[in-house]
Specification:
heterodimer; A: about 260 residues; mainly alpha; two-stranded antiparallel sheet; 2 strands; about 0% strand; B: about 260 residues; about 75% helix
Chain lengths: ~260, ~260
């Protein structure tokens, strides 16, 4: 309960700061939509020149992309920790966090929250509805719940990977560029993994399981029965990776030495 | 003139001090090139060629566009925005040089650094991993060099314009991001312009964006021939001239109604 009320207080403060520069907020949401449109345009233009992408049709690829946007929006709203190392470790901000009686990861998440990214959920669902109607997909009543579980699973996979990377900062505060690199690798999950070679496919499934954010869960809704095993693995992968990340974070915090100043 | 050259040198040395950042940068670009390589291989499937480019030319196109991006790309729009927000621009205006010219030179210093330490080694590494085709024609290399310089100028001019918008908007992070997305899409970095449907191509001909990536990359992959090359280079050059006008105008207006925020 306490955590919940803290959460809403942070949200309230956040709204105040963001609404100060309204014009900029609008431009930012617009540029987010534009960013999401870029990939859509890419898919549309490419399919002007080919019918199938390794057996996947245009609408299926669009559906996968639409699905990807939803867990990704949740992730980028709450896990904006790509600059954790610079902001909290090198500058010593972590000292301030640790003096407060709330779990440190929770605080960092709240401080770095970017609520406007949630708009991606809307874009994603609109894209899925568009592609779904073209494909004549049939949904059962329980699919809505499965959708929520899959989305949470995907978001947790993403969050898990990035929290783990951020925790590395506790052991070594050297500047690394692993984070931006990971964002780029994450993009591989937006397309059917069978277009990549076996090694990359293995990495995207088991080591950096970005495929569980896009293709795998989406293939359940597309009715690709031979991928169901991977589809239903999504929540499990999410929980496993996220728990691992929290354990690593908690252990890392005990190693935090603070930046002298 | 000397002071501008000195600025290029200083920026170059500054970048040199942080060069380890760049090794990972090459890796990031290679990852991106890899993603598009697999995607394009799947798109081509069994097809010989699409829009006059075969798979190898396409792979080369992607590799060159990304590596050229390292040269023309710079953050002077963000730098200008930051200097305006922090009020530093007031001091910059007193100094005995043209502020915008100086920013351009800093961008150039950065570009030359990345060309030497990023694009060249990056291109070599990438050509070990993916099948690329390099032209042996010296004229093509020469024309590419001219084209890439022009693409730097056009991109920098657009950056100056976006950066200067801070004078009027006060906080324009959103605009800067939007500009970056637009350039990625409409410059031809992700998709050659010739792949777009006809009406879109005609629309893009009205904007300067393809001067940034599409033209140099097409020259390099020899997707353009003869008359097309001359036409493309002229396109770039004309845009360089056209863009000078709004820059001068915005700069004039900005100086007139400038508000220093803090300082």
């Amino acid at each position: 309960m306490f955590y919940l009320s803290i959460f809403f207080q942070y949200v309230g403060q956040y709204m105040k700061t963001r609404l100060q520069y309204r014009a900029d907020l609008l431009v930012e949401i617009f540029s987010d939509i534009l960013f999401q449109a870029v990939n859509l345009i890419f898919i549309l233009v490419v399919f002007g020149h080919t019918q199938l992408l390794n057996g996947w049709s245009q609408d299926e690829i669009i559906f996968i992309y639409g699905f990807f946007l939803v867990p990704y929006a949740l992730f980028s709203t709450f896990f904006n920790i790509w600059d954790f190392n610079d902001r909290y470790i090198v500058k010593g901000e972590m000292d301030r966090i640790l003096t407060r009686p709330i779990h440190s990861l929770f605080q960092v998440i709240l401080e770095r929250m970017e609520l406007e990214s949630l708009f991606g959920v809307v874009t994603g669902i609109v894209i899925m509805i568009y592609a779904g109607t073209n494909l004549d997909l049939a949904f059962a009543w329980y699919d809505a719940f499965i959708f929520i579980v899959m989305v949470l699973g995907g978001a947790m996979v993403y969050a898990g990977i990035f929290v783990m990377l951020a925790s590395i900062g506790f052991w070594s505060d050297a500047r690394t560029s692993i984070m931006p690199m990971m964002y780029n690798i994450g993009n591989y999950g937006r397309y059917p993994v069978d277009i990549y070679n076996k090694a990359i496919r293995f990495v995207l499934t088991w080591i950096l399981p970005f495929a569980f954010v896009g293709v795998y869960p989406a293939s359940y809704f597309l009715g690709k029965t031979d991928w169901y095993f991977y589809a239903f693995l999504t929540p499990i992968m999410g929980i496993v990776f996220f728990l691992l990340a929290v354990v690593m974070w908690n252990h890392g915090v005990t190693k935090y030495r603070g930046a002298g100043n | 003139m000397d002071k501008y050259l000195e600025m290029i040198r200083i920026r170059f040395l500054m970048m040199l001090a942080y060069r380890t950042n760049y090794y990972s940068g090459i890796l990031i670009y290679s990852i991106n090139i890899g993603a598009y390589y697999f995607l394009w291989s799947a798109i081509y499937g069994g097809k010989e060629e699409i829009q006059g480019l075969n798979v190898i030319q396409m792979t080369t196109y992607i590799a060159v566009s990304w590596m050229a991006r390292a040269f023309y790309f710079n953050n002077i729009d963000r730098e200008i925005a930051a200097e305006i927000k922090e009020g530093k621009v007031a001091v910059e205006l007193i100094r005995p040089y043209n502020y915008l010219g100086m920013k351009t030179m800093q961008g150039l210093g950065e570009g030359i650094f990345r060309l030497l330490f990023f694009s060249f080694p990056g291109m070599v590494i990438v050509s070990f991993i993916f099948p690329l085709s390099y032209t042996s024609s010296l004229t093509t290399w020469g024309l590419f060099a001219v084209s890439i310089v022009l693409s730097f100028v056009v991109n920098t001019q657009i950056n100056l314009l976006t950066g200067m918008m801070t004078f009027f908007l006060f906080n324009n992070d959103g605009l800067i991001r939007a500009k970056r997305v637009i350039i990625d899409l409409f410059s031809g970095l992700l998709l050659p312009i010739s792949f777009y449907p006809g009406w879109a191509q005609e629309m893009m001909n009205l904007f300067p964006f393809q001067a940034i990536s599409y033209i140099p990359s097409m020259i390099f992959t020899e997707g353009f021939g003869g008359q097309e090359i001359i036409h493309a280079l002229l396109f770039q050059f004309v845009w360089v001239l056209i863009l000078l006008l709004p820059i001068q105008l915005l700069w004039y207006l900005a100086k007139k109604q400038m508000i220093i925020q803090g300082g």
